[in-house]
């Protein structure tokens, strides 16, 4: 799939902008603070309905304007699919084929995007939240029902934590309500967990050979899912539910004493091993970056396998962060098959054939000029 | 923009209604200025009377101008069935489809610890009392199909289960995460047919 065009209205520092994109490589060049990341972010928001940079939608609206709009068409399975996101003070609306979609899970997944930004180099080293967001985003765009379970889970979790606080402070003694919320929580926790197990299994299948390729067969990658409960990764959903039931029952008083939910997918984490050693604690910066890169490249293949088409790849300021060897590995992977957006302050940072034949855009303070295609 | 005070107040009142933004409020206010005086008076009276003359039925909690309400005092209705809903609007939606001939119980909300709403705050104790001295055989839980509505249904189900009364939950055809009042009559009547036992 690829994005044919995008139109921004009052989005960040873009008052009004329409761009036609290259189905292959698009390079966005500009000085700092001119709007390169804003452009990448707009594509990301069009796919996921929210930004990765902020949780406040308001920040996406150009200062002193009342709304922001992102429109685009995606070419996918021979269809031109119009998509639209609009943000205003009352909230946001998502449209697919010009029709408003009330539920996120009906919208997300229409455009698949894999993003690789300097923050992602932190995937291994960063906090557990970073890794949970990574799996949640990736599963969500391949299996939309996952977004539904995640949304329900978060709502119930909030209610349950409030009730546990009330019980802790003896504002209530209603254990029946706690049991009800526990049952509800478990329903969605199990659906989330079983999908995470499946996803990680698939991801590792793709990531391992890629990782071996980058390290010239010197390193073997393993991923472990660290759960707050003791469960086999191949367990059927009924077993997972039962284990959650027992865990919550067994630890009821402990949870009341602490006033918060201590078990469930929101407490889980990923652990990466290279040649059997924990990369987070023992890996060099280079090994951590290679791991992050392998995972991102694996995602591209995984989505292609699950959805039938390659996703769009966003590389924000990341090429210059990688050494020549990792750069060329990345560029060889995307070559001619993945629509890619690359930002940089100077093309000279990047020497590769893929880039040389790309369409170049110059960004200058919210204005974008497309460079005439160079003849070869 | 400057408006004389009577208009500003009218605009302000309209903005308090759901779904009406500042622009629509201005339009409505100016429309009222052009209405016949009699119509405006009737309108104002209707607003005040709706508020003053309506109370909640002491049996089921539905809004009514007589106590007990028409539904509760209708002897042709089936005492064996009680349908539990969150809102008076849900009773009206159910009544419109004319397929349900039992009684109602209106909770006026759903349990939500986050908002400080517990079972005692939503008419659950009254429901339990009603079940004690009545000939009730089946309780249909038609709370909204969102997280709080589900939790409320599960909670009531746990309380009532020991009494042996059959408990069913409206299940199918309703949009997940949607509110009952938005469901059209066809999906609602399907939902009633497909209720599952809890
Ligand atoms: N809501 C907004 N309205 C107007 N300008 C904004 C808004 N949010 C960010 N900006 C501007 O966008 C610029 C940053 O753009 P960015 O895409 O992050 O730069 P870069 O080209 O370095 O990636 C800054 O000049 C900032 O002031
Ligand atoms: Mg940037
Ligand atoms: Zn009544």
CATH architecture assignment name of the largest domain in chain B:
3-Layer(aba) Sandwich
CATH topology of the largest domain in chain A: Rossmann fold
Task: Extract low-pLDDT stretches of chain B.
Answer: 172-186
Number of helices of chain A: 11
Mean pLDDT of chain B: 85
CATH class of the largest domain in chain B: Alpha Beta
Query: Rg of chain A from C-alpha positions?
Result: 22 Å
What value does the Rg of chain B take, in angstroms? 20 Å
Q: Could you spell the SSE succession of chain B in H and E letters?
A: HHHEEEHEHEHEHE
Shape of chain A: globular
Strand order of the largest sheet of chain A: 2-1-4-5-6-7
Protein name (chain B): Recombination protein RecR
GO biological process, one term (chain B): DNA recombination
Pfam family, one (chain B): RecR_C
GO molecular function (chain B): DNA binding; zinc ion binding
How is this structure best described in words?
- The complex is a heterodimer of chains A (376) and B (198).
- Chain A is of the alpha/beta class.
- Chain A has two domains: 1-112 and 309-376, 3-Layer(aba) Sandwich (Rossmann fold), CATH 3.40.50.300; 128-306, RecF/RecN/SMC, N-terminal domain (Glutathione S-transferase Yfyf (Class Pi), Chain A, domain 2, Up-down Bundle), CATH 1.20.1050.
- Chain A has helices at residues 36-48, 104-107, 128-142, 145-168, 175-214, 237-250, 252-258, 279-282, 285-307, 324-334, 353-356, and strands spanning 2-11, 14-20, 25-29, 67-76, 79-88, 91-96, 99-100, 113-116, 221-226, 269-274, 277-278, 312-316, 340-344, 359-364, 367-370.
- In chain A, α4 packs across α5, α4 (145-168) crosses α7 (252-258) and α5 packs across α6.
- The longest helix of chain A is centred in the middle third of the chain and has 40 residues, at 175-214.
- Chain A is globular.
- The mean pLDDT of chain A is 92.
- The longest helix of chain B is centred in the N-terminal third of the chain and has 17 residues, at 37-53.
- The termini of chain B are far apart.
- At the A-B interface, α4 and α5 of A face α6 of B.
- Bound molecules: adenosine-5'-diphosphate, magnesium ion and zinc ion.
